[in-house]
Write a structure and sequence with these properties.
The structure holds two protein chains of two kinds.
Chain A: H1 9-15, H2 19-45, H3 49-65, H4 69-83, H5 89-112
Chain B: E1 8-13, H1 17-27, E2 33-38, H2 41-46, E3 54-58, H3 66-76, E4 81-86, H4 91-99, E5 104-107, H5 112-143, H6 146-149, H7 155-169, E6 174-177, H8 184-193, E7 202-206, H9 212-220, E8 221-222, E9 234-235, H10 237-240, E10 245-249, H11 256-268, E11 270-271, E12 280-281, E13 285-290, H12 294-299, H13 305-312, E14 314-317, H14 327-342, E15 349-350, H15 352-359, H16 366-380, E16 385-386, H17 398-404, H18 409-423, H19 428-435, H20 439-453
Parallel strand pairs in B: 1-2, 1-3, 3-4, 4-5, 6-13, 6-14, 7-10, 10-13, 15-16
Antiparallel strand pairs in B: 8-9, 11-12
The chains are: A mainly alpha, B alpha/beta.
Chain lengths: 117, 455
């Protein structure tokens, strides 16, 4: 699965081959993801579907920057599920938990990318 | 690259730190941009005093919607270009935001960089043009300084200055009346360029210069297909004057049916383009002018009374030049110097006789006519002195002019006799015959004239 195989092609296309900028983006990702995961978990626990939707929406954009298309699609699916009226809570919980596990697992791989810059 | 003071302030408003850094990086590729990053709508709004030229705005912010932030930015400064960045492609939202004044709507995807750079490139051209427009407006404003542009120290002109000073401090509608050539448009521009609206457009529309059937679309604009020949959408003059001043010259010439529409527009402060469905709000100071007496036009049924009162506002009546005494010489000197400088001619003075001649003419064409007379005299003069003979009055309204200046019967008689003496090469007998008067009358007049000149 490409979920766990991040790459910098997209980021390089966006920002060029500036090593400092790329390293900065990687470290920002590594620092940001745990916070976002925690926020999303809290929102799920509180059944705050607006909060879940907002966070999934925000994460999908930066996941794409690191070539994590599969995770981006998962975030999109969460967003869609939140907007359903009424939301299918079981499905939402299931896809969200899977998503969060995958995202957490991908952090070391992204961190490793700093050696390829 | 611009100096620190000339840098263009740009905001990146994005709550996602990763995306915020990326957009900032792209923005900073242009060394002329000074980029400020904010993570919420409120933080962005709190910094609008920095007057950013461009704002990249994430549509889904945690505190306010992109739409709310956009509206507040536009209310602060409608010239700020707002680029919406959104995580989802939503055509209806994009159309709505573009209608509300967003410059572009860009989806966060693989194409973001190219689209953003493309938009920034377009904006750079627009900003450069706006800077040029701003520069030219300031230059123009300099030309309309109240104390430099309106020349005259006569009592009627002092009253005009006093009223203009009141007009520039408020947004009151101003109605300017005065004969043709008294400088109504100059006064209107001076009010605009000395008011708080000076940095916004001054739009002038002459009612008598546009065929009545075209005037409505000119003023209010039209949508594509509104009438045969309406190939595209066109904004009207009311829209173009938004936040500035709309000068409606020769307002008395407006067709009575259009007057009703104008009244509605002024009451509602919104226009509807021809063929358009939604009203468009405008905020423009209105200045109207006419050479006619609007009250008389109302009495004659040619001008709506309700519109008359709506437009009257602060009335400023410009005196005809013949009632401005020595202002004639001040203006003559001003026009002469201006003409000599523009044409790189050496210094020239007005002789005593030339001044006398200028003072004794009635100027049916007012200041405009004086300017033309002086410029011609400057060309005709042989030496560095402009003589009375260099001054020629060629008014097409000579006969009216003759009576416009109220004087004594003796003075009228003197002028008539001298006119015919000049016409018949100072032949007294022929002049006396033509005027059916005794030649002694003419000799007596010549003697009196001689005594006046050489007492």
């Amino acid at each position: 699965m490409n979920h766990r195989n991040p790459h910098l092609d997209q980021l390089k296309a966006m920002m060029g081959n500036d090593p400092d900028a790329l390293l900065d983006m990687i470290s920002t990702f590594v620092a940001q993801v745990p916070d976002d995961v925690a926020t999303l978990r809290s929102a799920l626990a509180a059944r705050d579907w607006d909060g879940v939707c907002r966070k999934a929406h925000q994460m999908k954009s930066y996941l794409l920057l690191f070539g994590l298309d599969g995770l981006q699609h998962q975030a999109q699916a969460i967003e869609r599920a939140c907007k359903a009226d009424p939301p299918d809570i079981d499905t939402l919980q299931a896809i969200s938990m899977a998503f969060l596990d995958e995202v957490e697992a991908v952090i070391p791989s992204v961190e490793q990318l700093s050696h390829t810059v | 690259m611009k100096s620190k003071d000339q840098l263009i302030d740009v905001f990146v408003v994005e709550d996602d730190p990763v995306y915020s850094k990326m957009v900032r990086y792209i923005m900073e590729l242009n060394p002329d941009y000074r980029v400020h990053s904010f993570t919420s709508g409120r933080e962005c709004l709190q910094h609008l005093h920095l007057n950013p030229a461009i704002i990249s705005l994430d549509y889904s912010l945690p505190d306010l919607t992109g739409e709310e932030v956009l509206q507040k930015i536009k209310a602060h400064n409608s010239d700020t270009a707002v680029i919406i960045l959104s995580g989802q492609q939503d055509i209806s939202t994009a159309v709505k935001l573009l209608k509300q004044g967003a410059y572009d709507y860009i989806t966060k995807d693989n194409e973001t960089r190219e689209r953003l750079l493309n938009t920034l490139s377009h904006l750079r051209r627009n900003i450069r043009l706006m800077e040029e427009v701003q520069y030219l407006r300031e230059e123009l404003g300099q030309q309309y300084q109240l104390d430099e542009n309106i020349i005259g120290i006569s009592k009627p002109m002092k009253r005009v200055y006093a009223l203009m000073q009141k007009a520039v401090k408020t947004n009151i509608t101003v109605s300017i009346t005065g004969e043709t050539g008294t400088g109504k448009e100059v006064v209107a521009k001076s009010i605009h360029y000395n008011s708080d609206r000076r940095k916004k457009p001054f739009v002038a529309v002459n009612m008598s210069a546009i065929p009545s059937e075209l005037l409505e679309s000119e003023l209010f604009g039209y949508e594509k297909g509104a009438f045969t020949g309406a190939a595209g959408r066109k904004a009207g003059q009311f829209e173009l004057a938004d936040q500035g001043t709309l000068f409606l010259d020769e307002i008395a010439e407006m067709d009575i049916s259009l007057q009703a529409k104008l009244l509605r527009v002024l009451q509602e402060r919104e226009v509807m383009r021809l063929g358009g469905g939604a009203p468009i709000k405008f905020d423009a100071r209105i200045i109207v002018a006419t050479h006619k007496n609007l009250a008389e036009e109302v009495a004659a049924g040619r001008f709506r009374e309700d519109l008359y009162y709506r437009l009257l506002g602060l009335p400023i009546e410009l005196p005809p030049l013949r009632e401005r005494g020595n202002d004639i010489l001040l203006l003559a000197r001003h026009f002469l110097n201006e003409f000599l400088e523009q044409n790189r001619l050496g210094h020239r003075d007005l002789s005593k006789d030339a001044k006398e001649k200028l003072l004794h003419y009635s100027y049916p064409g007012n200041v405009r006519e004086l300017k033309a007379v002086i410029e011609l005299a400057a060309v005709m003069a042989v030496g560095d002195q402009i003589e009375a003979d260099d001054i020629e009055f060629n008014s097409i309204k000579k006969q009216d002019a003759f009576l416009l200046e109220e004087t004594t019967l003796k003075e009228y008689t003197r002028r008539i006799i001298f006119h015919f003496l000049k016409k018949y090469d100072n032949n007294v007998l022929l002049t006396a015959k033509k005027l059916d008067i005794g030649k002694s009358t003419i000799y007596r007049l010549l003697k009196e004239e001689e005594q006046t000149k050489h007492p």
